[in-house]
Structures are given as C-alpha cells and as structure tokens.
TrEMBL record:
Organism: Halovivax ruber (strain DSM 18193 / JCM 13892 / XH-70)
The protein, known as: Shikimate dehydrogenase (NADP(+))
HAMAP family: Shikimate_DH_AroE (MF_00222)
Classification lineage: Archaea, Methanobacteriati, Methanobacteriota, Stenosarchaea group, Halobacteria
SUPFAM superfamilies per the UniProt record, alphabetical: Aminoacid dehydrogenase-like, N-terminal domain, NAD(P)-binding Rossmann-fold domains
Catalyses which reaction(s): shikimate + NADP(+) = 3-dehydroshikimate + NADPH + H(+)
Gene name as annotated: aroE
Keywords associated with the record: Amino-acid biosynthesis, Aromatic amino acid biosynthesis, NADP, Oxidoreductase
C-alpha cells in the first residue's frame, strides 16, 4: 500500500485525508493518506524519516511551508514563492535532506499557485468572454498564500497588483513578481476600479464576519475569490455576490491544489469530481461538529 500524508501542526481539522482518499478510491489505488504533527523544530527529521520509510508523497501546511524548502530540492516556482506545500520522493526513497546528491533529494513544489489559478479559470472565468490571461488582478495579502497566488497569476498572464496591511511586504513581493506593483490597503478602491480579478489572500474573514475590502469598491465585472475557506461564504463573497460579481469560495482552491498534488505524485489525472464531492461533505460534517 502506498502511504501519503500531511505534515502540519496542528492538522486535526484537515480536509485533505478524506479528499485524497476519495481520489485513491476513484482511481482504484491501494493507497492511504494520514496526518503527521511533528514538533515545530523537527521538520527536517520528519522529512528524512518519511523518505527512509518509503512514504510516497507529503503535503505540507502551516507552520512548515516555508521551512520545508530547506529540506527538499524546490522546483523553480516553489523557489520563487519561497514555500513548499507538496513533497515528492524519488522512487524507492532517498537519503533525504542531508544527502549531498541533489538527484536523490525529495523534490518540493507549490500547488497553491496552480490551485488558485485553476479555481479562477474554471469557477470564475468559465462563463465569461474575457480570461485570466491579460486580466488585471488585485491580490490582497503578502503572506504565504499571497505569494503563491501572486506568482501563479503572473504565470497565468495576469498583471498583478498586491495590496497588504504592511506595505513593505507588498512592495517586496511586487518587486519579485514580473510587472507587479505593491500598495497599502487604502489604495484598494483605486486598484479595483479597472481590475477584473480580486483575491483575498489574508486571513481576514476567518475569525470574524469582516471583509478586508470595502464593499463600495466591488463591482460586477470582478471575479472575486477568497482563499479563506472556513467559513465557505465569507463576508467578502457575500458582498461580491450582492454587487453582481462572480464569487469563488476558498474550497475550490483547496480542491485544485490537492488535485495538482495528486497529479504530481501519481502522474495521473486527478478525479476532481469525486474529490470535490467528498471535500464538500467532509466540510459540512466538520462545520456541524464545530457548532
Ligand atoms: P500568513 O502567511 O500568516 O499571511 C497572513 C496575511 O494576512 C498577511 O498578508 C497579513 O498582513 C494579513 N493579515 C492578517 N491579519 C490581518 C488583519 N487583521 N488586517 C489586515 N491584514 C491582515 O497566512 P497565509 O498562509 O498566507 O494564509 C492566509 C489565508 O489563506 C488563511 O486564511 C489560509 O487558511 C488561507 N489559505 C487557503 C488556501 C486554500 O487552499 N484555500 C491555501 C493557503 C492558505 P501583514 O503582512 O500586514 O501581517
């Protein structure tokens, strides 16, 4: 049996195990997906241990996405983003991080970028005449998710404007992303006036029913995606729908980053319909439990 897993701390409420197990079932694979919660200072040991044990692939989540890059061979996009959420192990395992031979090191990838782009393409732009390629996109947030989304959108052909509470982080990120600009949150109304994409990549909206974007700055030409997926329907998405904009909730990005990880590990198309069905039902069961 192939073993896949998630490294994070905490990982208790993760929706990845049921989503990936649904994929294995749909593809008739003899595989399982488990969660691991290593100590915060034991990331390197965990990755080396997984490698020695013959784990087939790992996802990485908070707080390890940035640190994991030091223990793998990152691909070009993950290196530019500075974070890894998917690790693939070479066939037959490897010596891991301390091995001097790069060929045998686990490889590191960032599927958050591809997940965000696919969510916008398939859920946001599917019924529109225009596309993500050539769009002007406003990304709010310059943390891990903001970095992945900004690089992903630029690769997809969008012009990226980053707005962040800490302006220096926005300008620093914008200086790394081709043709991007960095701004403070006060600039949002101006930035959004001629934009067709808005992504919230901050955690605002998760803990409280707040939106980081003033509702008056939204308009019907926008595709609005929230990376926040708990709750699914955030204040930002409700405001977006009320203005006639297209709203894309964060579970789509979650689904498509998982699909991209599955495809990276197995070389097979991900069964996204089955993964999405289980993601949604697990999400609802989880939310009921938390109530
Ligand atoms: P992070 O690295 O900690 O970054 C947090 C970002 O939020 C920073 O830009 C921070 O601004 C901003 N922020 C936090 N509190 C704020 C406030 N009160 N007012 C204004 N800005 C605030 O976190 P992350 O890993 O990027 O995650 C961000 C969100 O994306 C989380 O909700 C996470 O669950 C979600 N996410 C979703 C997916 C998905 O698949 N749907 C994938 C990854 C992440 P400063 O720089 O000024 O501190």
């Amino acid at each position: 049996m192939d073993v896949y897993g998630l490294l994070g701390n905490p990982v208790g409420h993760s929706l990845s195990p049921p989503m990936h197990e649904a994929a294995y079932e749909a593809r008739g694979m003899d595989a399982t997906y488990v969660t691991f919660e290593p100590d915060r200072d034991a990331l390197g040991d965990a990755i080396r241990g997984a490698s020695s044990l013959g784990i087939a692939g790992l996802n990485v989540t908070i707080p390890f996405k940035e640190g994991a890059i030091d223990h793998v061979e990152p691909d070009d996009l993950a290196a530019r983003i500075g974070a890894v959420n998917t690790i693939a192990f070479p066939e037959g395992g490897s010596a891991g991080a301390d091995d001097r031979d790069a060929v045998t090191r686990p490889t590191g990838h960032n599927t958050d970028a591809a997940g965000a782009v696919r969510a916008l393409r398939e859920r946001g732009f599917a019924d529109r005449d225009d596309s993500l390629d050539g769009a002007t996109a406003v990304v709010v947030g310059a943390g891990g998710a903001g970095r992945a989304i900004a690089f992903g959108l630029a690769e997809a052909g969008a012009t990226v404007r980053v707005a962040n509470r800490t302006v220096e982080r926005a300008t620093a990120l914008a200086s790394e992303v081709p043709d991007a600009s960095g701004h403070g949150l006060d600039d949002l109304p101006t930035l959004l006036a001629d934009a067709t994409v808005l992504v919230n990549a901050t955690s605002v909206g998760m803990e409280s029913d707040e939106s980081i974007v003033p509702s008056e700055a939204l308009h019907e030409d926008l595709v609005v995606m929230d990376a926040v997926y708990r709750p699914r329907e955030t204040r930002l998405l409700r405001d977006a729908a009320a203005t006639g904009a297209t709203a894309v909730d964060g579970t789509w990005m979650l689904l498509y980053q998982g699909a991209a990880a599955f495809e990276r590990w197995t070389g097979r198309d991900a069964p996204v319909a089955a993964m999405g069905r289980v993601l949604r039902s697990s999400f609802e069961a989880n939310t009921d439990q938390e109530r």
